[in-house]
Amino acid sequence: MKDATTPAPINLRHLLHDATQQLHAAGIEAPQREARLLVAHAARTDLAGLLRIDTLTDAAHARFAHMLARRLRYEPMAYIIGQTGFWSLDLVVSPATLIPRADTETLVEAVLDHLPDRNAALRVLDIGTGTGCLLLAILAEYPHAHGTGTDLNPQAAALASLNATRNGLAARSNMLCCNWADGVEGPFDLVLSNPPYIPHADLATLMPDVVAHEPARALDGGPDGLIAYRALARALPGLLAPGGLGVLELGIGQDGSVPALMRAAGLDVVEIRPDLGGIGRALVVKK
């Protein structure tokens, strides 16, 4: 006879239904998918693996309950799971850095089109590297390239180093903790940056996932959102080799003001590439 004190198995279908309802009530997009991702992570499997199980262990259920509570407080899914995908990479993420977005992949696409020789021995700099996503995506596509990533936050620089190792790119990358490109010796064939570009007054209007959990220093572009671009305009002419490219991420509505800053610094504006939503996202400039 079954011991009356033995807890009943936790039915996966009922658990997913209840979690989906809670996430929906909290206003979280794609609540069913998010519920499945959380359960899969708690069960130490993937979405396909969920099809092969009907119940959760007590330990898995406890992990799930803890993660669901965090998500209902609008903590980003990537921070809860601890990783995310970007381009061809699997990246560790933490609250020390922004979570890489698909929009930022527009910069990688622009680089590949403007520098078509994949065997080029490029020297690359990524200013404000965060997780290292941009630099590491480029190194993965150009097997003879070497690069440096800089970040003011020592925890971010350490995380970028971890991601370089995780993706087999540590031997061709160097992550430094410094302000912008202070102490970095050029010239570089390619300089990348996804700088802080949200006008300060707009920070409070961002989604709660972002404003309450992602680092404000990596978002806040000052009163007009352009402080970082002014610094980049001053730095890029001295960092780029003749004919070198700068590829910068833009925020909404910045496809006029930022190119003007770069032209005033003596750089040629080569392209403003839109993301999938039609927003001018990747600014390509040339020395």
What structural category do the secondary elements indicate? Answer: alpha/beta
CATH class of the largest domain: Alpha Beta
Helix and strand element order: EHHHEHHEEHEHEHEEHHEHEE
How does CATH name the architecture of the largest domain?
3-Layer(aba) Sandwich
Provide the spatial order of strands within the biggest beta sheet.
7-6-5-8-9-11-10
Q: Roughly how many Å is the radius of gyration?
A: 22 Å
What kind of oligomer do you see? single chain
Topology, number of strands: 11
Uncertain ranges = none
What is the mean pLDDT?
A: 93
EC number: 2.1.1.297
Domain Methyltransferase small: 110-204
Binding site for substrate: 194-197
GO biological process, one term: methylation
What do these coordinates show?
The chain is α/β, with parallel strands linked by helices. The protein has 2 domains: 10-73, Orthogonal Bundle (Helicase, Ruva Protein, domain 3); 83-286, Rossmann fold (3-Layer(aba) Sandwich). Helix content is 37%, strand content 20%. The protein contains 11 helices and 11 strands. The protein has a 7-stranded mixed β-sheet, with helices on both faces. It is elongated. It starts with 9 loop residues before the first strand and ends with a strand. The mean pLDDT is 93. It catalyses: L-glutaminyl-[peptide chain release factor] + S-adenosyl-L-methionine = N(5)-methyl-L-glutaminyl-[peptide chain release factor] + S-adenosyl-L-homocysteine + H(+). It is an enzyme of class 2 (transferase).
